[in-house]
Amino acid sequence: MPKKMMVSFKLNGTDTDVIVEPRELLIHTLREKCVHTGPHIGCETSHCGACTVDMNGTSVKSCTVLTVQAQDAEVLTIEGLAKGGVLHALQEGFMQEHGLQCGFCTPGMITRAYRLLQENPNPTDEEVRYWIAGNLCRCTGYQNIVKAVQYAARKLRGEQVETSHPLLEAAS
Amino acid sequence: MIPRPFEYHAPTSVDAALALLATHGAEAKLLAGGHSLLPMMKLRFADPAHLIDLNRIGTLKGIHLEGNEIRIGAMTSENDLIWSPLLAEHCPLLVETARQISDPQVRYRGTIGGDISHGDPGNDHPAVMLCLGASFVLKGRGGERVVPADGYFLGTYATAIEPDEILTEIRIPVPAKDSGSCYAKLKRKTGDFATAATAVLLKLDGDVVLDVSIALTNVGPTALKATDAENSLRRRPLTDSAIAEAARLAMSICDPVEDLRGNVEYKRAMAGEMTQRALRTAAARAKR
Amino acid sequence: MSAQPDIERLTKLEGIGCARKRREDPRFIQGKGNYVDDVKMPGMAFGVMVRSPYAHARIKRIDTSRAVALPGVIAVITAEELKPFKLHWMPTLAGDVQAVLADGKVSFQNQEVAFVIAEDRYIAADGAELVEVEYEELPAVVDPFKALEPDAPVIREDLAGKSTGAHGARRHHNHIFNWQIGDRDKTARVFDSAEVTVKQDMLYPRVHPCPLETCGCVASFDKIKGDLTVYITSQAPHVVRTVVGLLSSIPESKIRIISPDIGGGFGNKVGVYPGYVCAIASSIVLGRPVKWIESRAENLTTTAFARDYWMTGELAATKDGVIKALRVHVTADHGAFDACADPTKWPAGMFHVCTGSYAIPNAFVSVDGVYTNKFPGGVAYRCSFRVTEAVYLIERMVDVLAQKLGIDKAEIRLRNFVRKEQFPYQTPLGLEYDSGDYEPALRKAMAAMDYKALRAEQAERRKDPGAEWLMGIGIVTFTEIVGAGPSKMCDILGVGMFDSCEIRVHPDGSAIARMGTITQGQGHQTTYAQIIATEAGIPASVIQVEEGDTSTAPYGLGTYGSRSTPVAGAAIARASRKIREKARRIAAHLLEVSPDDLEFDLDRFVVKGSPQQVKTMKEIAWAAYNNVPQGMEMGLETVDYYDPPNFTFPFGAYLCVLDINRFTGESKVRRFYALDDCGTRINPMIIEGQIHGGLTEGLAVAMGQELPYDEQGNVLGGTLMDYFVPTAVETPVWETDFTVTPSPHHPIGAKGVAESPHVGSIPCFTAAVVDAFSHLGITHMNMPHNAYRVWQQSHELGLDKHT
Q1: Do B1 and A133 touch (CB under 8 A)?
Q2: Could you identify which of C394, C426, C485, C558 might form a hypothetical disulfide with C356, taking C-beta atoms 3.0 to 4.6 angstroms apart as the criterion?
Q3: ipTM value for the complex
C-alpha cells in the first residue's frame, strides 16, 4: 500500500494541508476532505466539466488531476469567487439572465467562464460557446448561459449593465 | 472512477525522470497532461505501479525558433500552442490543429508530447507531425537522439521510443512563408476524436503544386502519410479532378476500425472528403 | 384611486405572468446547493454495485471472501443476504418484479449482482474488484421481434407458467402484455374503402435522459429510534416512502424521504433502483448511514431508459389529404424487467394521444410489450408517458401522406386540424382535449419564418446539381397530454395521481407553502409563489416554498410528465383561494360589513363603493391570530388536495430549417422556431428556459443519441465519449414564441409546458432531415440522424459523388 503524502496548496486563498493517497483525485479531496461541495461529479470519463476548478490560472477538470499534482498550487473554486459577500459579475450574470435551472453544471460553468473572461474580456457569442464547450448542461440549452457570460463581460469591462434581480438589487 | 493504488514521483529534471524510469522500468508510466492516461487508470484499463509526473520539469515547456526550426518542449500544453504568437506567424497549421483537439479544460493540461507519445490513432498531432516533416528529440540515460516523425509511429499504442527514453522536444522545419495549410477534422461533436482528419501543407506556383504534404488521422493503426496522393499532385495543376484523384489515393491507404463513428466504408469516404477539404482550404490560403 | 399605485402593488406582488427572477439561484451560483452526494453524515459508509458483464447468464458461484477480507470493507451482500428480508426482488411501477440483486441468473448486461459496503468510496471500488462471480453464459436476445419467436431464449424464468401478467394475457414467454384501444373493426372498414392509404414503419430508438447528476441516495437507519431517513435523487419522494414502507414493513410515519436539490431529473429519477434498496437494507442491518452514488456508465446503462418503440403507422385518407382513420401497431421493447413508470391502467402510457392535432374520426392502436436482454425502463426523458412516441408517429405519418399526395406539409395540416369550435374535443381513442387553437399557431410560425420564401429557396436549391448542401424544412404541429391525472384513470401503485399544496400565513403576513411535487430545476420555488401571490394577494417575495421532505410536505405524486403546473399548480391556486376566502371573512369582521360587500383588489379587500375602507392581507394576517369573527378558528392556513378532472393539452407549432452536406452527412440547423401554447403563462422567463432546454435535448435525441446493442447483448456507447450530449457549439440559437389558449378546467387556465419542446422538436428535426431528401422519393429515415447515417442515405442515392 503506497504511503500517503501530505499536499499543501492554497484553496480560495486559504492555506490548506491534506493527507492523501497518490491516487486520490482532486475532486474527491475538494469535496470530501476540504468540504467544498461546489464542484460536482457528473461522469467518470473526463467529459462533462461539472468538476471544473481554476488551478494556477487555468481551468482544469479536477476529476482528472491527482491531488498530489496540486502541491503548491493556487486553486479557485466557485466558493471563492464572491469576495466579502459581494458576488462576482458572473454570479450576478447567471442570476440576472436565468443562466441556470437545476444548478448542477453551474459551479463548473461559472468557474470556467471566470478564466474565459480573464483571457478574453470581449468575446463574441460564438467565442463564448467555443470556450465553454468543455462544460455540459442539460437544462438550459446554453442560450441564457451565453447571455449570462456576456452580462459579466460587459460589467467587467466597466460598461453599464441592467440588473433587475430583486436579490441583487437588495444586496447592492 | 477510482484508479488502483500507485506510487507517485514528481522529478524536477529530465535526468531525475530518467533515473526513475531506469529504476522502475516496466512498472512505471510517464504522466504528461494525464488526460489520456488518467481516464484509462480510472477505468482500471491501465494500472502502472509508478507514475512519473513530468509537469514539474520546466525545461520541457516552451516554444522558440532556432534558425529555421521551430522547437517545442514536449510538455507544452495545447492551450500554449493555440495562443503562441510564434506559431500563429510561422506555423498556423499547429494552431488550427490544437484548436480542434478536445475541449478548453483538457487543452490546458494536454501536451503536444503526450499527444504524440500515447500512440492512440485518434490523437491529432502525429498526422500533423508527419505532414510538417517534424523530428523528435529522445533522451535516454546514454544521451540524445533525434528521430524523424516518419517512421516513429509503429502501431496502436506503439512508437519508436525506447522504454528508458523520454521525448523532450519536437522540432519542426518552418513551413515556407507562402505555403498554405489546413487541418480538416470531421467529428461527431466538439471534444470527440476524428471520424477522419487530414493535414495538408501546400506550396503553389500559380495553379501548379510545387510541393505538398498530406497525412491522415484515425483511419489506420497509426497516422498515415499519403505519399501516393502527394506524388499524384506534385508539379501538376491543382484541378478538381487532381484533388479528387489525390483523395482517392489517400482513401486507398486507409484501414479504419469500425465503431460508433462509422463503418469502414464511411470512414474511408470521409478520409477522402477531409483530404479534399484540406487541399482546397490550404490552396485558398496559399494563394494569399 | 389613480392607476399608479395599482402598477406598483402589482409589481410588488410578482404574481402570475411576470418574468420573476429565481429565488433558488443564490445558493447554486455560490456552490451551496445541497445535492445527495453533498450529504455527509457521521459514520457514513459507501456502497458500490458489482455488475454482470454478461447480458444473459446463470450465476454458478459468488465468492465474496477476498472482498470481505480487504481492510475497510464492512460487508458484501448478494441476493442470499436479502432473501430473509424478501428484498432480493422488488415490485416495479409496472406491476412486474425486478431483481434487486441477481437471484441465480442475470438478464441484462450490468445487472446488479452484489453490493459492497466500505468505509470510503476508494476502498469500496477496490473491494468490488475482489468479488468473484462465476457465470455460465446463455444466448441473449436483444431484438424484440426475435424475442417473440417460438425458440427464443427464456428471459424470465421467474414467470414460467404465468400466462397472465399485470396487464392481461401473455401469449409467449417473452411477451409482457397486449394493450388495445379504439375501434378495430370500424377502423379496418375505413381502411378497406379508403381512396388513399399510406403505411410506414419507424423506430424510435432507445435513448437515455442522462441528467448531469447521476442517481444516488444516503440511507440512514437509526436503530435506537427505529427511524429511517433517506436522502435520495427522486422525482417522487412520497411514492418512494410508500414503496419503502411496503418493502421494509417500517410504518411510513417512521420513514423520512428527502429529495434535496436534484441535478436534473427528466424522468430518470422516478423509479426505485436496486442501489437504493441495497443502501437502505444495508443501513438497516448495519445501523450506519450508507451512501450509494452511481457512476455515469451505470446511469446510462442500467437506469430508466426511454423509448425503444418499433411502430407501424397507417393512415386512410381522401385524395385531398383529409384523414379518415389511423391505425398503429407498436412492438415495445421493455428490457428484461418491466419497470415502466406508467399509470397502472396504461402500459403504453398516454400513447393514445397519437391522433394528434387532427380531427381523425377513426383510430385503433395495439401495443405489444416484449422482454429482451436489455436494461429496464421505457418511460423517461421528458416523454409525458409515451407522448414523444405518439407525436412522432402521427407527425411522421402526416408527412408521409403529404408526400404521397404531393400536398404541401403545412397545407395538409391545415386541412386536418381540430377546429377551435370543436373543443372540448373527444378523440376516437377516448381522450377529451380541453382546448386548442391550432391554425393561428401554425400560421404565426409560418409567417415568422417566411415559409413561402423557404420553400422557394428549397426549390431553387434542388435545381442546382452542384449544390453541396441539401435543404430541409420540418414542420410539426403537436398536441400533447400532461398533468397526470384524474385518479379514476391514473394511479401509481394504487395511489391516485392527485397533488397537493399546504399554505400557512404567519402573523406578519408572510407565508410558507409546501407541495407534493419536487423541482429538479423547473423553478418551483419561484413560480409557485407567483400563483399564491396572484390568488391570495401575498407578495411572492415573502412566500417561502418548500418541497421534497416527506415529513413536512403534503402527499403528492411528484414532478414528471409536466404535471406540476396542471396538478400541483391547481392545488396551489385552490389553496390560495381558500386562504383568500377566510381572509375575506376576517376582513368583513374587521370592517364590520358583510363579506359580500367586499371586493378583492390585488393584495387587499375594499368595501364596494367605499375605497378608503380597506384591509390589506398583511393586516388580515395579524388579525387571524387575535381577532377573528365569532365561531371562526384562529390562524390562516389550509391544505388542498387536487384530483384533476382531466389532463391538459398543451400544443405547439415548430418549424425547422436545416442544411445537410451531401458529401459528409453533416447537418447544420439554420433556424429553429418553436411556438408553444401552454395556456396561462405563469413565468415567461422560466418557460423560455424550459423550451431552450427541451429543444436542446430534442436535438440530442434526433441527431445523435442511441444505445445500440450487439448480438451478444453488449450495450454500446454507454459513456459520454459516445452518448451524444451537445455542447454549446453544437446547440443552435433557438427562437421561441407563443399563443395563449387557457385550459377551461384548470383553476388558472395553465397547462404545463416543459416536455412540449422535447415532444415536438424530435419529429421536427426528423421531418427536416427527411424533407431534404424527399424530392428523391425518401419518405422516412430512422433516428439518430448523425452524419454517418445521413451520409448512408446520401450515398445510397449517389449524391456523394464529386462530378
Answers
A1: no
A2: C394
A3: 0.98
